[in-house]
Amino acid sequence: MTITSIESDYNDTQPLFFHIRLSNLILRDVSSLEEPRVRENVTFHINGDGIGGLSKVISTINQDLELMQYIPWSNPSRFLNLTTFLIHGPEGCGKTLLLRRLSEAAWSKVYWIDKSWFATNRRNQADALSDIFKSALAHQPSLIVLDQLDIWMPKDHDLGEFLNNQIKATRNHKVVVAAAARYFHDVHPKLRYFTVFNKQLQVTIPNVEEREDILRQMLGPESTAGLDLKKLAANCHGFVGNDFDQLCTKVRPQCPNETKKASGNPEHEALVTLKQGDLEAIIKDIEPTALKDGILKLPHVPKVHWSDIAGVEDARRKLESIFVHPFKVYSKLRCMP
């Protein structure tokens, strides 16, 4: 049974106090009271099938989501708002994909807020946001997604404090708030606190191992048979998820995962095996997002040898005389007795 309101003849601005022995509780129209629906054995998690390079982030989110099924409905205060996420990272690295997969879990209701939603609610933004959070509290377990948070609520927006309070109001309830932004410091200052988003997860430009995982997941096991994925991943330096999606779109006519109907009979498929050379040729035609946007970090620099570069012998000798030779001489001097 859930008590939604209490009436008293005592008129004062002070809050009511319930004494365990002296206070009396009178229930009116008991027959109309309904027990809240309890959804038993409901699991919440992100399905990572087909998603490569984001296993650590998915695992972290799923670990927190798993706690929801152990929180008793009779005592939701034990939930303690354990699941508020802020996923941040460069464009095209899979943030929105993670939010979409999260929204596919067994929620009673999902609310999606992005720049498109914000544009249609310019005149009553505060009221519209308030209605969403009230509805989310009334339809637990629920999910509120704040995609492109840094775009529709920039650092100088006057709704930052309001949204801060709305998110904090979901504490002790089975309401998950998940947000995504390109860069953490572009998020409104009032929303960067740990008390607002207690899990701040960064997605980065994929390294070579993560790129190999993305290729394997996107192309599928049937397509990757006979391919040197390590070599392909090394050639995809600077690629992000969107670049791999572009790659798969270009190879799709040859991909075994796509059905090519033969003789108009849908039960027969003419499958074509992907070739290493074809993929390498397509990779060269794609401009990597990380290189284009200048967001690549030093740990992701590819291995390029002098043997890979032709016609620069003079430049090579000058560079070696300036940078390499002094260090060799210094190393020899240090080894001398």
Describe the protein in words.
- A hairpin with a 2-residue loop joins strand 6 and strand 7.
- Strands 2-3-4-1-5 form a five-stranded parallel sheet, sandwiched between helices. Strands 6-7 form a two-stranded antiparallel sheet.
- The longest helix has 23 residues, at 313-335.
- It is elongated, with a radius of gyration of 28 Å.
- The chain is built from 13 helices and seven strands.
- It is of the alpha/beta class.
- It is 37% helix and 10% strand.
- The chain has helices at 55-66, 95-103, 115-120, 125-138, 149-152, 160-168, 208-219, 221-224, 229-235, 241-251, 276-284, 289-293, 313-335; strands at residues 84-88, 109-113, 142-146, 175-181, 199-202, 261-262, 265-269.
- It has three domains: 43-202, Rossmann fold (3-Layer(aba) Sandwich); 208-303, Helicase, Ruva Protein, domain 3 (Orthogonal Bundle), CATH 1.10.8; 307-337, no CATH class.
SS class: alpha/beta
CATH class of the largest domain: Alpha Beta
- Named at the architecture level, the CATH assignment of the largest domain is 3-Layer(aba) Sandwich
Helix content: 25-40%
Order of helices and strands: HEHEHHEHHEEHHHHEEHHH
Sum up the overall morphology in one term: elongated
Q: How far from one another are the termini?
A: 86 Å
Radius of gyration using CA atoms only = 28 Å
Short overview:
By secondary structure, this protein is an alpha/beta fold. It has helices spanning 55-66, 95-103, 115-120, 125-138, 149-152, 160-168, 208-219, 221-224, 229-235, 241-251, 276-284, 289-293, 313-335, and strands spanning 84-88, 109-113, 142-146, 175-181, 199-202, 261-262, 265-269.
